[in-house]
Each structure stands twice: as structure tokens, then as C-alpha cells.
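Q&A log
Question type: sequence-to-structure
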Amino acid sequence: MSIIDRIPALVAAGEEAITAADTSDQLEEVRVRLLGRKAELPNMLRGVAALPHEQRGPVGRTANAARKALEAQIELKAAQLAEAELETRLARDRVDVTLPADPRPAIGRLHLITQTRREIEDVFLGLGYSIAAGPEVERVYYNFDALNFTETHPSRMLTDTFYIEPAGDVLDPQTRLLRVHTSPGQVRCMESQAPPIYVILPGRVYRPDADATHTPQFHQIEGLAVDEDITLADLKGTLLAFARAIFGSDREIRLRPHFFPFTEPSLEVDVSCFACNDGVTADGERCSLCKGTAWIEVLGCGMVDPNVLAAVRRPGYDPEKVQGFAFGMGVERIAMLKHGISDLRVLYDNDVRFLEQF
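Response status: OK
Response body:
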């Protein structure tokens, strides 16, 4: 049989094999057998140049036409098989969306601010304190007047406090505002119960600040203790227990004089740095957390000013008979210090990559 007569036989055998293929894998095997590098038809085309001159044209045209015909049939068959296999796969892999996920999706977690707030609450609950709350929309009386703020205090200015429209007179005790601290809740607690009182007040507060360490809305926890024979030593012991529970059992605290309208004396509290030794890190560098001072400022506190006790609209808070101390801290600041966060705003970005670290 001549070469040119062999070509129809190859095409017929190829068409039969293509038709018989039931899967894409089988069809691929047929394609390699018919048109692969070692297949007879492609080799025939590569050998055209060795044929006598008068056979080159007829053999080349016939073999090339045969190859194109087989390629077209393989492509058509491949599309048919792909469609059929897709239908089969879709039927087999059908998902009942009413069933629980498998594996179940990861359970969410508490936000770092909530985690930190609850951790602080647990410390003071263990010390015998209770938890209370006050309104976020307050009156000037509770936010300033009852807390011994003078009429000229800068916090009363429209630029320093969010007043509720209509703003009215910023000195009017009934003017409404968004509280700038949770301290008004202390006055409300004293009005609602007689001493002794040991309470903390967590909640949101509002100030018109916005930068890497301030946001217009943030969280505070205020603490108040009023009883007979309360001293500054009681306050220091309470805050030392808090610092060691939050930052580690080896922490120490120091008190520095400061000023708050509602406490006298007033103090700032520093905790010994937990990232270095006397301001120097393990690699001999100046500690970036405490700036080489070996101390980190964490909160403000003081003994309740007698004027605050005297302003309570309830018997039992005679400053000649009872004393008290108060303290306040920013929840975000505690979280930032404990976890080495440099920018307060990342706590509110809701970036899952950040939140999942905690």
C-alpha cells in the first residue's frame, strides 16, 4: 500500500477511536496516539521532503488535511465530554446549604478592647468591687459641677467637649453633653447608695481629639471607694494589686503629684517597665516603651476631694466622717501598653489580620 493510500485508513481508525473515547482522559490518550510526536501521521508529514518530487505535493496535502480533520473531531469530542463531565460533577458535588458547614467556620472572638476591659473588671471584682454604669449623655452638673470643676476650667469650652444641640449655656447645670469621663457615674453611685461604696464604672467617653494616641470616642474605667478611715495607703495597695495582676507579679508602682479637680491630693501612677531592666533592653538598647526611664505612666488617681463628698445629694457623705479615693484609666492605653501597640487607631480599623493576633 502506498503512502497516500495509507492516509484514509489512518483517518478511519482515528475517527473510530475518537468516537469510542468515553472520558477526557481516554480522549487525550487517543490524541497522543494519533497526533503525538511518535504518531504515524505526523511522522508522515515530517518525511514528505524525502519522497520523490512528484509525490510530495499529493502526500503533503492529503496528510495535512487528514491531520486537521482529526484535530477538529478531537476538539469537538473534547467539548462534548467536558460538558457531560461537568454535569456529572455538579450533580455529584451538590451542596445542601441548609446543613452546618464542614469544617465549621471559626468562632469569633472578643475585640481586644473588650478583652482588656473584662480583664480589668475581673481584677477589681476579685478585690470586692462591684460594676456600675452611667449615662453617656450627661448633664453639666454631673460632668463638671458636682466634680468640683471651676467655671473657667478649659474642659468646659465648646472646643473641648461635645455639647448636645441646642448647646445652651455651658455653665447651665442642665445643659446636655457627651460625657468626657466616666467620673459622673461616681457621683450618681453615691447619690443612689449610702457608704461604704466600692465600685468601678467602665464605659465610653468622648473628647474632640484625633491622632495616633487619641480618638474622639474611647473607653475608661473609673474606680471609687468611700468608707471610714480610707487612706492613701489603701489606694496605693489597691493599684499595686491591679498593676501586678495586669502587667506581671514583679511590677512596682510609684506615685507622682498631679492635679485633678475632683481629688486632693491628686496623683499620677507609673508602673515599672515590663519590657526592660532599668530602661535598657536585653540587647543593650534604650527601651522604646518607657523611653529609658524604667517607668510607664498608666493612670491618674487621688483622694476624693471633700467638696465632691459634700456635694452629694444624699446623707452619709459628710467629709468629716467618711473619706474615699478614686482612680481612672483608659482601657485602650492599658491594651496598647500590654500588647505593644503603637497606634491607637488600629484598634478601630477592624483589620481582621490585626484582631486575630489577640
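Response note: The chain has two domains: 3-92, 112-355.
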